Amino acid sequence: MKKTPLNRFVALVAAAGMALSAFAADSGAEEAPLRPVLSAYTLEAGGASCTETYLSPLHYSGVAFALTYERMQSMRFNPEKWVMRLDGRLSFDRTTNPAGNASMWGLDLDLGWAMTYRLRLPHSLTLLAGGATGIKGGASYSARNSNNPVAAKAAWTIDATASLIYNTRIGRVPLCLRYQAELPLTGIFFCPEYGELYYEIYLGNRRGLVHGAWPGNYFRLDNLLTADFRFGGTILRVGYRCDVFSSKTNNIVTRDITHTAVLGLVSEWISLGSRSRTALADAKIISALY
Amino acid sequence: MKMNRLLAGAAITIPALLGLGSCHSVESWNDDIYGNFDALWTIIDEHYCFFADKDVDWAEVGARYRAELNPEWEAREFFDHCAAMLAELRDGHTNLISWFDVSYYNKWWSDYPQNFDQRLVEQYYLNFDYSSGSGFIYKYLEDRKVGYVRYASFTSGISDSFIDMMMLTMKDADGMIFDVRDNGGGDISNVEKIVSHFIEERTLAGYITHKTGPGHDEFSEPYPFYFEPATEHVRWFKPVIILTNRSTFSAANNFVGAMKALPQVAIVGATTGGGSGMPFSSELPCGWGVRFSASPVYDADMVLTEAGIEPTPGGAVDLDPEAALKGVDTMLEFAIEVLNKYAEENAGNKGDAPSRFILPTESNGR
Known about the structure:
- Chain A is built from 3 helices and 11 strands; from the N terminus they run αβββββββαββββα.
- Chain A is mainly β and 290 residues long.
- Helices cover 13% and strands 60% of the residues of chain A.
- A 10-stranded antiparallel β-barrel of chain A has the order 1-2-3-4-5-6-7-9-10-11.
- Chain B has a domain of 201 residues: Alpha-Beta Complex (2-enoyl-CoA Hydratase, Chain A, domain 1), CATH 3.90.226.10.
């Protein structure tokens, strides 16, 4: 047969096909591990301390609430080493000024995605460390102000995140302790200029509203401590969150510190697909957290 | 193994250290007489926008008033002292708000004739019979061939369809009299809503600027803003006279500034009260609020109107108190006469009518 470029291409594709078939047959011999999806729904309640100098130079304090969803799963491409986390958090706070005669309301929505590398440490410790990205939007509202009643918040950040996990038992109850921290390293965020009214933005002046973020001007450290107690198929989560946020740009300082107690339910579920009973019995389960 | 321990340690200690040390500082004051005074002085010092325009030496003012503080003062005395300091700014947009009183600087209007009597207009011109809504009262004065519109405050929401009906009602008039005497302002977005019914195309309405930092001279580049015509609604291109007095203030002042640039509009009455600085709000540790001018607005000629807008040349008229006693509003009469005369002069040559509505003056011979 004459070796034309077309013939060479067909031969190459055929060889690649055979190689892939052989790889697939080999893979089928070892059942892929099961990767349960962890879903957690938690409520948070606690205290908030807020300063938003666009609205007031005073420190406000009051109560904070949040509703949080978290989803974690080991990754298909390397379940032993890589874990993905998705989370969403809707938070609300109501704070008052030191004199107690003015209120500020805050409403924020955070959505995040993280990819972490799993490191097995001695003493049943596991470290998850990696990167995350998230968007945040919300506003603080002061009813007493006339032309500057609202300070809007919006940001997209790339973060560093790490979790230290300790799996143990209390009696017969499996317990998973976790400390997790997330810190934005860079990104962009919205902030009006020092004395700029939102009316001017409405009129069309968009100059200087978006700023590059780094920990020096946009600092946030979200600390989460959880204890997951497994009672049969039910997992109870209790914990504590300390969310520290502080930004300064255009001489406007925004500082929100919340301390909240965390209470919620966690579930792990597995998509069985078309696996046989035997295959399931032999399959290895790699949880994201436990 | 050593590396793993290092990683674990770093994961805990680095965030903890960052958390302790990374909050940005905010100036704070004690809730005592000196702390509250310093907070008030600092808030104004860092945010107020007209120090240079009004030639106010705020450092000198602050030092003078601080030296007079007496820690034994009751709240009332302290409030009056702070209010007196704010009055040095000569600004109608500056208020101190406590649970027992709100301070106002009144001299911007109290030193001038009022030039308006609502009862006079309603009784002798409208016969207490008029249409109202969206903050307006209006009537087509058929016997005088003019439409009269009074807009007393910019705080009310405005409906385009209401303005449509209002304009259609007076479509046969020689012109419209738009009375904003004693209009103390309100929602500035209502300015655009009304002006959009008087413009043919996208129109430069003014410039706005803001502080970019706490320094007295830190301002942004003036930003030009435009109003869009209400193309889906009734628009008015016949002559319009805006009636003003010294109590035409804030958003009403901005409205006059935007309308003054339109070719079919003349300003008649007295110089407006100004108030062209959009106010900001803040507060003191004791819970009192403070409001002050923070964001200057200029007219379409880039003129600051904080001191007021003068009438169109030939349009300066006062209300004669003696005539008022006889049921005559001399400012309104002047406006009616001008509109009637203008219509009469241009009755036969609509196609060649002057492109700009000009008030009669000695210099133009009209």
